[in-house]
Amino acid sequence: xxxxDKWPRDFGRVITTxxxxxxxPADVYLGYGPVLPPSKKEGRTRIEVRGAIGEExxxxxxxxxxESNAEELRDTLALINWFGSLGSRARNGxxxxxxxxxxxxxxxxxLQAEGSLCRSIVRPWKECLDLEWGHxxxxxxxGHPLVxxxxxxxxxRKAMTR
Length: 162
Known about the structure:
5 helices; alpha+beta; two-stranded antiparallel ribbon
């Protein structure tokens, strides 16, 4: 674990109770698991950051799948790559990944808003509000997916701040 006195503390707070009296630092809430708050009970005097894969590290994922499931797996890997998310806190930006095909293997498809895979996971944004969990990408009133990109940043701390 990395203990840091230089952790940026400008993330604000997240209200955690209906009456608005309970709150937690936003970075701790968003980073549930990788970012641990100070805790007298657990002997932490400052923020600690746990990392599975370091910023400059790479990991190799080898997947063997029956041919009958190959298309489903390709679609799953494409979605992970497009939206950079995997894991229990993926919607908060943690667990973000980029996948690259190894030489000699098929490349993952590029995100195409009008493509059949993208179209299979969207619905009008107002319908998305009918359920309490993230289950689809919203479509705006003109039928375009509510997906946008920001500039590439040099590290995850800058991305979280952005």
